[in-house]
Specification:
Elements (H helix, E strand, L loop, with lengths): L15 H8 L1 E4 L1 H8 L3 H5 L21 E10 L4 E3 L27 H4 L2 H17 L6 E11 L19 E10 L1 E3 L1 E6 L5 E5 L6 E5 L3 E5 L2 E3 L6 E10 L7
Helix pairs in contact: 1-5
C-alpha cells in the first residue's frame, strides 16, 4: 500500500510574514504566490521551459547523475533587482558536509528568463517579505538555483547532503514541475527543538519560505512511478544580508 501524501500546511497570504516569524517557515499556495509576486500563473509557467535544458551537475560527490542545474546571483530590494556578476556557488563544510568548501561553477540562468517581469516580481516580493522580517536590511544578496532531479539512476536525491541549513538568512523553495515520480517529501525541523513537519509539494509554484537560522530542511529521494525516468523540478532562492557566501 503506497504511503499517504501529506498536503502542505498552507498559510494565508496575509499571514505569510507572521507565519515565518512564529514557526520559522510558511507555505503559500500557487494562487497566493501569483498574487504575492504580481504575476499570473501563466507568466510563471512561461519560466518552465528553462528546466528542459539544464546542464548536468558535474560536482556530485556521491557518483550520481541525477541532478541538472543552473545558478545566478542578484542583488534585490523591494523595489529593484540587479543581476550580479556571475560567480561560483560556495558553501562552507559547516553547512554542506558533502559539497562544502569547493568552488562550484554552474552555467548562469538565461538573460531571457531573468528579464521577464514574472522573475523580477518574484525577487522583489521575496525581498519585501524578508525586509518585513528583518527591517534593518535594505537589500539582499540573492542566489537562484534551477534544479532538475531525475530518476535516470533509479533514484534521485534532491538533498544529497541530508537535512541541512544553507548558511543564509532565508531560503525559498518553489516547486516547478513533478512528473512520473513518487517520494520527494519536504521535511522541516526546528534547529533547536523537537518539532518537525513533513508534507509533499505537488502543485507547480507552491512556495516554502524558510528562516534558515531557525529551521533545518530536506527533501526525501524520488523514484519513478513506472518504467522510464521521471523528474522533479524546483527553483531554490536564497537571500543573505551580509553579502554572498565566499566573499
Amino acid at each position: 500500500m503506497p504511503a499517504a501524501v501529506l498536503a502542505p500546511p498552507f498559510a494565508a497570504l496575509e499571514h505569510l510574514t507572521a507565519a515565518v516569524r512564529d514557526r520559522g517557515y510558511a507555505v503559500l499556495s500557487p494562487d497566493d504566490v501569483a498574487a504575492w509576486c504580481g504575476a499570473p500563473l501563466a507568466a510563471l509557467d512561461a519560466l518552465r521551459p528553462d528546466w528542459e535544458s539544464l546542464p548536468a551537475d558535474q560536482y556530485l560527490r556521491d557518483g550520481g547523475h541525477y541532478r541538472r542545474r543552473r545558478h545566478s546571483c542578484f542583488v534585490a530590494s523591494p523595489s529593484s533587482v540587479e543581476r550580479a556578476p556571475h560567480r561560483a556557488h560556495w558553501q562552507s563544510v559547516e553547512y554542506n558536509a558533502l559539497h562544502g568548501g569547493m568552488q562550484r561553477w554552474f552555467e548562469p540562468m538565461p538573460d531571457a528568463t531573468v528579464t521577464r517581469p514574472a522573475w523580477q516580481g518574484l525577487l522583489r516580493a521575496l525581498a519585501a517579505t524578508c525586509t518585513a522580517l528583518r527591517p534593518a536590511v535594505a537589500r539582499w544578496f540573492v542566489e537562484a538555483h534551477q534544479f532538475r532531479i531525475d530518476t535516470t539512476d533509479g533514484i534521485g536525491r534532491p538533498t544529497p547532503e541530508g537535512a541541512h541549513r544553507d548558511g543564509v538568512d532565508f531560503v525559498a523553495v518553489l516547486l516547478v514541475a513533478r512528473e512520473g515520480v513518487k517520494g520527494g517529501e519536504t521535511r522541516v525541523f526546528e534547529a533547536d527543538g523537537p518539532r518537525g513537519e513533513r508534507f509533499t509539494l505537488t502543485a507547480p509554484w507552491t512556495l516554502v519560505l524558510l528562516d534558515d537560522a531557525r529551521v533545518i530542511h530536506e527533501s526525501t529521494p524520488i523514484q519513478p512511478t513506472s518504467e522510464g525516468s521521471g523528474h522533479r523540478d524546483t527553483l531554490v532562492i536564497t537571500l543573505r544580508a551580509e553579502g554572498f557566501q565566499g566573499g
